[in-house]
Amino acid sequence: MDEFKEQEDIYYAIALSLSEQDQKGKKSIDKESQSEEYKQLARAQTKEDEHITKAQLEDDEQLAEALQEIMYMESPPHCETENIFQPHPFNFPSEYRICARCKTEIGRGEFLTCMDADWHPECFRCHACNCPITDSKFYISGNRSYHKLCYRKQRLPRCEVCKNFIPASSKGRIPYMEHPFWKNKYCPSHEHDGTPRCCSCERMEPRDTRYLLLDDGRKLCLECLNSAIMDTEECQPLYLEIQEFYEGLNMKVEQQVPMLLVERQALNEAMEGEKHGHHHLSETRGLCLSEVQTVPTISRRPRIGANHQLDIRTEPCRLIRRCEVTAILVLYGLPRLLTGQILAHEMMHAWLKLNGYRNLSPEVEEGICQVLAYMWLESELYTASGGDAVPSTSSLFSSLPSSSSFSTSLKMGKRSDFEKKCGDFFKHHIEVDASPTYGDGFRRGRQAVDKYGLKSTLKHIRLTGSFP
């Protein structure tokens, strides 16, 4: 304000000087009144100067804001990868910025700098959903950016059971279990929380899907249920197909051996009644009987009752021994391909007994039976694929009958993709079985048949009791 007071005094002095000049030829005016008039004039001039100064300050502020807007750069969002992007120091560019996406000039306004490039805000988009990324944190994978949720959906494993994203550990790792064949990922906790598995394909029951509860406590997924065989009568056509398969190998079973579908409890009790058995699987699914027993068999296809539970009817069947083999028992409620695999395995037990193969070691007997079951599966899967000739990719096929003699399965209609996949799973299960009796026995038997053929391998087993 001292500056303005000094200006006022100057204006006042000028006014006095002008007043003295004007007094020549004019009337005398009251000095005190004239002085007050010039003071008011000086004050008006001062206010005008203040207004001009204020306007200049406002213009300066607007200019500064405009420069700041031009130089504005939003700090890059944090990237939740191992390499977290930090804001780069801003240098006023000597040339135009070009957007990395649309390749046009960015110009004035907001823009982003990330991944060593500049972007219009609306051009910095998620690679998964193609929507702009506006969150403060996002994921970078290679040269692609993702929303956090989009990245999790696309890249992080989701549990097949609870459908949740599998949580990371405190160390940042994502522990999960994975089925070796189906590749389904699931939380490790489901291994111990009582989550049931399908008794056929071994897949875990999802929380949003209900498996069928069989009368003996097993659970069956709906896909396996589509081709499941539920009673003894329904299984007879498949049993005849297995017999034709053996006839095509010149290994006809001469005696009429009864075949029954039974519950798990009946199968376990029958196995305990056998004096000689080589069954070392975690669960027995089939049995070739050689003793006289009374076995309850499934006499009528079960009905699905409340709570997805089957209502079955059984009746006792007295098995009379007419030869070395009394009957073949198979667990009910399994898909057609798995039931056929079990039948082919047990039929080989019957063939060995009826053809004088005595005192074989468990590894040799169970191993060669698994080889025949595997051969039947291969023939079924190849026939379902529509092949007209037997492929030569495996020596096992050299022992198989021609396609015309084992094409009866096609009468059942076209096999679904899932059923074909299940067939591959059953083959895989035989191949990777870790048990010394079934797994090692199969691998040794398959190697022998691949090298020498089925006929020569069986001849060597009869003479030596071992694989060649």
Automatic annotation (TrEMBL):
<dbReference type="InterPro" id="IPR045218">
    <property type="entry name" value="DA1-like"/>
</dbReference>
<dbReference type="InterPro" id="IPR022087">
    <property type="entry name" value="DA1-like_dom"/>
</dbReference>
<dbReference type="Pfam" id="PF00412">
    <property type="entry name" value="LIM"/>
</dbReference>
<dbReference type="GO" id="GO:0046872">
    <property type="term" value="F:metal ion binding"/>
</dbReference>
<dbReference type="InterPro" id="IPR001781">
    <property type="entry name" value="Znf_LIM"/>
</dbReference>
<keyword id="KW-0479">Metal-binding</keyword>
<feature type="region of interest" description="Disordered">
    <location>
        <begin position="21"/>
        <end position="48"/>
    </location>
</feature>
<keyword id="KW-0862">Zinc</keyword>
<feature type="domain" description="LIM zinc-binding">
    <location>
        <begin position="97"/>
        <end position="157"/>
    </location>
</feature>
<protein>
    <recommendedName>
        <fullName>LIM zinc-binding domain-containing protein</fullName>
    </recommendedName>
</protein>
<dbReference type="Pfam" id="PF12315">
    <property type="entry name" value="DA1-like"/>
</dbReference>
<keyword id="KW-0440">LIM domain</keyword>
<dbReference type="GO" id="GO:0043130">
    <property type="term" value="F:ubiquitin binding"/>
</dbReference>
